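Blinded run. Sample ID left blank on purpose so nobody reads anything into the name before looking at the predicted structure. Input follows.
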Amino acid sequence: MGARKRLASVNRKEFEKTIAFAKLNNCPTSPRKMRLVADMVRGKRVDLALNMLRFSTKEAAERLEKLLLSALSNWQAKNEAVRIEDQELIVNTFRLLANNKVDYTIFWRRLCSFTAQSGHEAVRELFFDGESFNAWALQYSERIATVDIGLQANLMLKNNPRFVLRNHLGEESIRAAKLKDFSKVDTLLQLLQSPFEEHPGHDSFAAFPP
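Blinded prediction complete.
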């Protein structure tokens, strides 16, 4: 094999490590219905996609959520270079969130303040399975004990938004706008232009969906 082909082969293998595949067998849902839901989450971050599927009322959403979790497990198997503890923690985190029907946006934002010593209660109250959460929290605490707390919190705050465009917020803004009240539209636009900032006084826009 020539140098160019060898380099292309190496690059291809490295690229394939970033991709995970999964197959859904014996699915009774029609391809059209599955495609509609798949298009809804296509290109989204894994946590956001799982969050959208978790709270979707469409039948296909539950099947796609299981498929996405399966793909996540396959990614774990392909990325052996990643610390095995991190692989297990990643998969365990998403399984825990899915099993407890946790709001992903709120979870990741609260996790920004989670340290080995504090911040547990705000995260723990999101889960109904306390025993599973405690086991996960111990694993997560051991992992972050080896990193700089300030750097970790800063990176997480910059990558996990406090505000996202939820369906009910959009619908409320549209209803108000139809009555010539554009205040909610203006506020929502302002928050979504800088969703990682705290924006004191706007907690209702970062609250749980109804």
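Unblinding after everyone has recorded impressions. The CA atoms of residues 42 and 176 lie 30 Å apart.
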